[in-house]
Specification:
Radius of gyration: 20 Å
Number of helices: 11
Oligomer: single chain
Order of helices and strands: HHHHHHHHHHH
Largest sheet: none
C-alpha cells in the first residue's frame, strides 16, 4: 500500500513538473488550471503516508472533549499550518534553503520546536488529568498549529521548483489544492478519533463515576503518549 501511494505521488509530481516547465516556457494557464484538481488527490495520498501528525491529532482528540465540529477545525488548522510553513520557507528563504534546511525537505529547527511544544502540551494534559483541571477553549487549535510547524516536504519541493522556473504563483496554487487534500485525510482521522471516544462515552453513560475515572485515564494516557513521542523524536533526531 505504501509503495502504491509513493508511486501515485511520484506520477503526479512529475506531471506537475511538466506543467510548470510549460508555463515557464510561455505556455498558457488553461492547461495548468485544468491540472490543479490533481493537487487534492496528491495531498490526500501524501497525508496517508507516515508523518503529518496523524498520530498526534488522533491521540489529542481521543483524550480531549472536542466534538466533531471542533475536531474538523483542529485538523484543518493543522493542514493549513503544515502546508503554509513550507510555502513561506520556499518563498521567503529560497536563497538560504541550503543553509536553513538540514536535508532535502526538512527544517530541523522547526521540527524540534514543534516536538518540544507538543511535549509540553502532553505534560499539560497529564497534569490536568491528575488535578481535574478544565479544557481551554482554543487548546485544540494551539495543538494543531504546534504540530503543523513541521513543513510539508512535497509542498516545499513544488514551491522551490516553481520559484526556480519563475512561476511562483503556480506553486502557490498547487499548494492550496494540496492543502485541501491533506485536510481531507486529516479530517477523516479527526472524525474517526472523536467517534471512537464518543462510543466509549456512550458505554459509560450509566456509570458516571467509572466514566469520570476512564476519561481522566484516557486524557492522562494521551498526554503521556504525546510527551513520550516528543522526547523520543527529539533525542533520536
Amino acid at each position: 500500500m505504501f509503495q502504491i501511494l509513493v508511486e501515485f505521488q511520484r506520477t503526479i509530481y512529475l506531471a506537475l513538473a511538466e506543467q510548470i516547465k510549460l508555463l515557464s516556457a510561455g505556455g498558457g494557464w488553461l492547461a495548468f488550471m485544468t491540472f490543479l484538481p490533481m493537487g487534492v488527490l496528491f495531498g490526500a495520498a501524501h497525508a496517508l503516508t507516515p508523518g503529518h501528525s496523524k498520530a498526534v491529532l488522533a491521540t489529542y482528540l481521543a483524550g480531549s472533549d472536542a466534538k466533531v465540529a471542533r475536531g474538523l477545525l483542529v485538523s484543518i488548522t493543522l493542514s493549513i499550518t503544515h502546508v503554509t510553513i513550507a510555502v513561506l520557507i520556499a518563498a521567503l528563504s529560497l536563497p538560504l534553503v541550503s543553509l536553513t534546511l538540514g536535508s532535502v525537505g526538512r527544517a530541523p529547527l522547526l521540527e524540534d520546536v514543534s516536538r518540544g511544544l507538543l511535549g509540553l502540551i502532553g505534560l499539560w494534559m497529564v497534569w490536568r488529568a491528575l488535578s481535574h483541571g478544565h479544557h481551554h477553549k482554543h487548546e485544540g487549535e494551539a495543538v494543531s498549529v504546534m504540530a503543523g510547524l513541521i513543513p510539508c516536504p512535497l509542498t516545499l519541493f513544488a514551491m522551490t521548483f516553481a520559484i526556480s522556473r519563475g512561476v511562483p504563483v503556480a506553486g502557490i496554487l498547487f499548494a492550496i489544492t494540496m492543502m485541501a487534500g491533506v485536510a481531507l485525510t486529516l479530517s477523516c482521522v479527526a472524525v474517526l478519533s472523536i467517534l471512537f471516544r464518543e462510543r466509549l462515552v456512550h458505554f459509560f453513560d450509566s456509570r458516571p463515576k467509572l466514566f469520570e475515572t476512564a476519561s481522566r485515564t484516557i486524557e492522562g494516557a494521551a498526554g503521556l503518549v504525546l510527551a513520550g513521542v516528543a522526547v523520543w523524536q527529539i533525542t533520536s533526531a
